[in-house]
Amino acid sequence: MSGQYEILCLENPLLDIQAVGDEKLLQKYGLKSNDAILAEEKHMGLYEDLFQNYKVDLNAGGAAQNTARGAQYVLPADSVVFVGCVGKDKYAEKLVEANKQVGLRAVYRYDDEQPTGRCGVIITGHDRSMCTDLAAANCYKVEHLKENWELVKQAKIYFVGGYHLTVSVPAILALAEEAAAENKVFMLSLSAPFICQFFKDQLDQTSPYWDYVVGNETEAQAFAAAHDLNTEDIPTIAKHMANLPKKNTQRKRTVIITQGTEPTVIAIQGDDNVKSFPVHVIGKDEIADTTGAGDAFAGGFLAGLAKGESVEKCVDMGSWLAKLSIKELGPAYPFPKQTY
Ligand code: 26A
């Protein structure tokens, strides 16, 4: 059984340069132990530092690309296509290889000048600090999406990583408007607190189009703070987001907020009851690395959507895939393949 590329994902294809680090390294570059940021000039030495002085793992990354690989891992062949911009280099070859392993179709734009984007991932204990130099990933434009419009037309579900709000709002809105016009599904991830905080205006341009929006508790709280909601209560924030104005009134909005090992909160537009669903339990000794756990959750959830499952089942598939990913190093999925 093969799919018809019913899911299209857009965001930044990155190579993760991951290492177990220490407080000294975080301090040297002014990084918080648990964070995701865009690299500034002062961070550019980090990547070479990691290669020279730490034991690095190179993994395919980019949050929505991890989600796309996850959804394809679960679904029949030819179900998911991912678009974004890379450089003409070895890093891009590594991404192509990782996508091949799960059968994800990536339609990259290859930039002539910029190298493939990279994300330094510094692990300290259960925390991870991510510092991203977007490079080629920052060169994606709505024109590139238009060049592949037949893929957009073919898909029925669009998933956009919120990190792309720093790159191309027009590309995101092109997908959002297509979804609203054709009554297709538009799903966005909040990605990181800094997106909710510093890219609030860009984020707010997309909110009328959200059929599904996914994030974790810290992102939801950053959203609440940026919007002066005066609450840190997750169900309250989720309910607020669910009931923001909506363009396509044929679909009710669903808000999904994960909270690590705590239950996942679901709010549906117009529904007074906010629900919560438990996660798949994972033993402490089974945890290899939580990098990409949220991306995997979104991947499992998306796969459920594509199969037409209930929200409850989609959440459970997300939690199941997150657990599989946590047992792997980096944002990866186990082989031989496991089935839900
Ligand atoms: C624009 N930024 C900061 C980013 C990212 C990112 N993906 C896209 N854009 N910063 C970190 N990531 C990815 O998040 C994954 C873990 O959730 C990393 O590449 C990592 O694989």
Could you give the topology of this structure?
Blueprint: E1 7-10, E2 14-20, H1 23-28, E3 35-38, H2 46-53, E4 57-61, H3 63-74, E5 80-87, H4 90-102, E6 105-111, E7 117-124, E8 127-133, H5 142-147, H6 149-154, E9 157-161, H7 169-182, E10 185-189, H8 193-198, H9 200-206, E11 212-216, H10 217-226, H11 234-242, E12 254-259, E13 262-268, E14 275-277, H12 293-306, H13 311-326
Parallel strand pairs: 1-5, 1-9, 2-7, 3-8, 5-6, 9-10, 10-11, 11-12
Antiparallel strand pairs: 2-4, 7-8, 12-13, 13-14
Helix pairs in contact: 3-12, 12-13
Bound molecules: 6N-dimethyladenosine (26A).
Characterise the protein shown here.
With about 350 residues, this protein is of the alpha/beta class. Helix content is about 35%, strand content about 25%. The chain has 13 helices and 14 strands. The protein has helices at about 25-30, 45-55, 65-75, 90-100, 140-145, 150-155, 170-180, 195-200, 200-205, 215-225, 235-240, 295-305, 310-325; strands spanning about 5-10, 15-20, 35-40, 55-60, 80-85, 105-110, 115-125, 125-135, 155-160, 185-190, 210-215, 255-260, 260-270, 275. Strands 6-5-1-9-10-11-12-13-14 form a nine-stranded mixed sheet. Strands 3-8-7-2-4 form a five-stranded mixed sheet. Helix 4 links the parallel strand 5 (about 80-85) and strand 6 (about 105-110). Helix 3 crosses helix 12 (about 295-305) and helix 12 packs antiparallel against helix 13. The longest helix has 16 residues, at about 310-325. The radius of gyration is 18 Å and the shape is globular. The protein starts with 6 loop residues before the first strand and ends in a 14-residue tail after the last helix. Bound molecules: 6N-dimethyladenosine (26A).
